[in-house]
Amino acid sequence: MNWDSTPTDTAADDGRLVGAAADGEDQAVEAALRPKSLAEFVGQERVREQLDLVLKAARQRGATADHVLLSGAPGLGKTTLSMIIAAEMEAPIRITSGPAIQHAGDLAAILSSLQEGEVLFLDEIHRMSRPAEEMLYMAMEDFRVDVIVGKGPGATAIPLELPPFTLVGATTRAGLLPPPLRDRFGFTAHMEFYAPGELERVIHRSAELLDVTIDASGAAEIAGRSRGTPRIANRLLRRVRDYAQVKADGDVNQDIAAAALKVYEVDGRGLDRLDRAVLEALLKLFGGGPVGLSTLSVAVGEERETVEEVAEPFLVREGLLARTPRGRVATPAAWAHLGLTPPSGGGPGGTGQGDLFGT
User: Fold this and answer.
1) Is residue 78 exposed (0-12), middle (13-18) or buried (19+ Cβ within 10 Å)?
2) Is 69 in the same domain as 179?
3) Cα(84)–Cα(317) distance, rounded to whole angstroms?
4) Which structural domain, as residue segments, surrounds residue 213?
5) pLDDT in tens, 229-248
6) What are phi and psi of 239, to 5 degrees?
7) How many Cβ atoms from other residues are within 10 Å of residue 137's Cβ?
8) What sections of the protein cross the membrane (predicted)?
9) How many domains does the chain have?
10) Active site residue: 8, 172, 295, 331, which one?
């Protein structure tokens, strides 16, 4: 059970059953289900092994752990790992986020109140303001910040010594981090999407903690629709639990899981209403494309950012949609998934008529 508890900047993700952002219910459940040690953490084998070495070496030296940067999609376990780092180092943890630090003074106030060895978790670190980011450079490297007192020619910089601490930064967009900041992290890790087998382990453990009876076929059915994300797997498990409680005897098997997720409009590959609406518009209205993002967004009645940042990443990752210089194009897998036959002739989309919409 490894998933993040803090919201991300993904547009319009909240409210979707297969959205990876955490809502209030997710955060409450995660508090109860979150693993407390690396040994309990499911998946991310390479990251766990590397991080275990970093933490054990720091404990043997009696020193604070190096700063850690965790990157990856929402819901894969960045917040969970930050809490595990604090637990493994037997240190307190302070949690904040990049959008909450808009001024250097905000960061100075947090840093000056840290205890020795404390873990500072900074989620969505790429969204921190530039003045605060520049202050963080010195804090990470020299454990010191310069507090500016006064304004104009009379301003004075007062150096403030900080106790050694460990910064754990998390980001869903590692490419937006400036190199000077990225280079100051002693250990960086990229969180990968989970394999179905790993998600099944997550589901079984969650089901046990939630007192849900589920067999292997039910766990496999939910895992196959969870988009490689533990948070989504746990959310789907809770909805399947509700269905089993109301419509059946409370036990979850493959038939119950499939029937429940059909009610919630999550298909066998994890696509929901928005995902299918994008594919259906691309296939039925524009012959498979290419079609421009703005035109496609109007066709499905959603904002451009919603289609681009919420629906498209998963569709591209699943090989159902391709982004090209001329616009969005459906792949043969998209036609097969919706049970449609591609039109013959034309360009990449089949008919060539979508070229009119390639901007």
Assistant:
1) buried
2) yes
3) 29
4) 196-263
5) 999 999 999 999 999 999 88
6) -70, -35
7) 15
8) none
9) 3
10) 172
